[in-house]
Predict the structure of Enoyl-[acyl-carrier-protein] reductase [NADH].
Amino acid sequence: MGVANDKSIAWGIAKACHEQGAELAFSYQGEALGKRVKPLAESVGSDLVLECDVTNGASMDALFTTLQDKWGKLDFVVHAIGFSDKNELRGRYVDTSIENFRMTMDISVYSFTAVAQRAEQLMPDGGALLTLTYYGAEMVMPHYNVMGIAKAGLEASVKYLAMDLGPKNIRVNALSAGPIKTLAASGIGDFRYILKWNELNSPLRRNVTTDDVGKSGMYLCSELASGVTGENHHVDAGYHVVGMKAEDAPDI
Ligand code: NAD
């Protein structure tokens, strides 16, 4: 869930899962994106491409009912969905409106729990749920604003869902990706500067790609991660461990 085009993080994960033999279905939001997703799905042998707006419970029900009819059960679900008004992804967090706060929480936080409720029914033998988050949940990042609050809620949901669904052998994890130029990221103020900052200051001295995220996402969705749940796995070239870099210190 969440492929918009070939730059999407979800597409990186889909490709990595396909390489390991996964049979895939894709959901998209609105026909305009559907036109882009269908050829991508075809290229990995999937003809199961279904419309779903996560703010609409009936649309979510229809998606999972179709999956149940086609497959009977699911092994894993990737939730790579987030949205906020781009006018509030700049300036100060304190100026966030109640309307955008509610919409951001609905699409970017609650939708993962709504997915978990439906996926649970299709995972009688266990499975894996994966969502995408960002370091702006843990630390203040420029312009991330209400999305930072949403991602903090999403990361807490991962822990509660892991505890609820663990007895059914359903693992629930988050992957915290470093900044990547995607459609969603283009709404964030000064995003090019954030990319440059991460490149210069992360231990690997580079930004991550959707292929980097894809491989780690595939691991978390697969039996390779059979003992991992409730985790927030950073795939950010190590940026989250850095407090301060020494080499640029001026003489004082
Ligand atoms: P993207 O624009 O390719 O994907 C975002 C997806 O969310 C789109 O497919 C869009 O259709 C979908 N979406 C938005 N509202 C929806 C709704 N109501 N119903 C259904 N789908 C909806 O961008 P991306 O960067 O690949 O984003 C995927 C996830 O990764 C998001 O949760 C994002 O916050 C997270 N993330 C992105 C970065 C980054 O720098 N790009 C870093 C860390 C985490």
Summary: The chain is about 40% helix and 10% strand. The longest helix spans residues 98-121. Residues 2-4, 8-10, 29, 33, 52-55, 80-83, 107, 132-134, 177, 179-180, 182-185 surround nicotinamide-adenine-dinucleotide (CB under 6 Å).
